[in-house]
Amino acid sequence: MPPAQLANGDLIVVDRSGSVTRVTPTGGKPVWTFRSGDLSGLLSRPLVDGDHVLVTSLDGDLRALSLADGTLAWSLPQLPTEVAPTHVEHTLLLATTDQRLCAVDLGRREVTAVALPEPVHGSPLVSGSTVVVVGERGTLAAFSLPGLRPAWRQATRDLGTTTAAIGRGRVFVAGEQGTVLAFDLTNGQQLWQQALQVEAHGITAAGDRGPVLSAAKRQIHLDGTTGEPLRTFTATDGEWARGATVVGERLLVPLRDGGIDVFDLASGARLYRLESQKRARALPCAAGALVPTNDRTLHWFASFR
Length: 305
Fold this sequence. Notes:
Elements: E1 4-5, E2 11-14, E3 19-23, E4 30-35, E5 47-49, E6 52-55, E7 62-66, E8 72-76, E9 86-88, E10 91-95, E11 100-105, E12 110-115, E13 125-127, E14 130-134, E15 139-144, E16 149-155, E17 163-167, E18 170-174, E19 179-184, E20 190-195, E21 200-204, E22 212-215, E23 218-222, E24 229-234, E25 245-247, E26 250-254, E27 260-264, E28 270-274, E29 283-285, E30 288-292, E31 298-301
Antiparallel strand pairs: 1-2, 2-3, 3-4, 5-6, 6-7, 7-8, 9-10, 10-11, 11-12, 13-14, 14-15, 15-16, 17-18, 18-19, 19-20, 21-22, 22-23, 23-24, 25-26, 26-27, 27-28, 29-30, 30-31
């Protein structure tokens, strides 16, 4: 799970026991640890807001911890979630397990909630004042900030399990058999559809360069305006795992048997391979990424040449 990085380089990490820890980047020395005591132990990725770090929980509590010493500053109950929240200025957006989209005003500690048409399996996607969530049955629902006013709703059909990303004023949705659809972010109108006929791992936004569809043997970079393939990155040895990540102008793709291939998005050239654990994805952090290695340490890359 991606950690949060502070200005001095310290990291805030969560673990499967339900603990939150602030550690120094050299040596991993703990500065403090907060133990939630939650029965599930399932906390979200940590997000920094001012002097606090925020974590949500499957058990239901949203907690704000002091960055200085890890003590509990405040909490809000009845916000159970299995997916990572999204932080927009001083608002936290989260999709709950009881089919609500909630906007938490972190200054006032007030919750605005709307009902969702179906359970959600991914984090809320945000661009400008528009929030989009993707349901388990493929329904896209868009809302406007502030207030979560309904903006539009669009159904996708026969795609199976879907993943989604936002970029260039569009919402890109990929089905498990490689069909990709693009919708206008402002009104939900479908703009194009591309059937790539691969067993897709997921879709990743690549800024203004358009989305990347990931599969075991191919990464397909698409033109966000037309849907036409721009270039294809091909696995030359082994197969890729899920979890492709875009960091700046680099595409980082984990391999099933260990290692992370680093590609240049502009040219499609594979630049080098990083050492990592099997199926370990790069964890975006600030402008760089953390990479889990075989000796059970995290290597921090501030940038990628």
